[in-house]
Design goal:
Elements lengths: L7 E3 L17 E6 L5 E2 L14 E6 L2 E10 L14 E7 L5 E6 L11 E11 L5 E9 L7
Parallel strand pairs: 1-9
Antiparallel strand pairs: 2-3, 2-4, 5-6, 5-8, 6-7, 8-9
Length: 147
């Protein structure tokens, strides 16, 4: 359940976890090659590095380092958010190995290459059953790092 008391469901299953409480961090669902140990997101059945056909499902995240980013001055899909004038996207290096592209939470002055990032969920909309449909994104980690 979210802070609103509504059940949360992912926009697409199989890409990230949706924890029971807001206090728990979500994780991304990836795969690791059994031969070369390369880790990928999203999941793969065949290793893109060595083409081995055996992979293991792994959970990755929730922290990473901002590799690069940009700010787009257009509305984010069909959003009702306050920051409808634009949004940030970036590439985040995860300690497990993959570099992933994701939407970032914050304004055009909130990011710096090399900063620590935290995975979180954002409610996109409510479905017909009254559940919160969520997507993942990254935000800058707070100075305290207690998340």
């Amino acid at each position: 359940m979210s802070a609103t008391g509504r059940e949360r469901v992912p926009i697409e299953s199989g890409y990230f976890s949706v924890p029971e409480s807001d206090a728990e961090a979500p994780l991304l669902f990836g795969s690791r090659c059994k031969k070369c140990q390369e880790t990928f997101f999203p999941r793969r059945e065949v290793c893109a590095s060595c083409l081995h056909r055996e992979t293991t499902d792994v959970s990755i995240g929730p922290r990473g380092t901002l590799y690069t980013w940009t700010y787009l001055y257009v509305p984010l899909f069909n959003s009702q958010r306050a920051d409808d004038g634009g949004y940030a996207v970036g590439q985040v290096d995860l300690p497990e190995g993959p570099r992933i592209q994701a939407v970032l939470r914050g304004g055009p002055d909130d990011f710096a290459i090399g900063m620590e990032m935290q995975l979180e969920l954002e409610t996109l909309r409510q479905d017909d059953e009254g559940r919160d449909v969520v997507v993942y994104r990254f935000r800058p980690r707070s100075e305290g790092g207690s998340e």
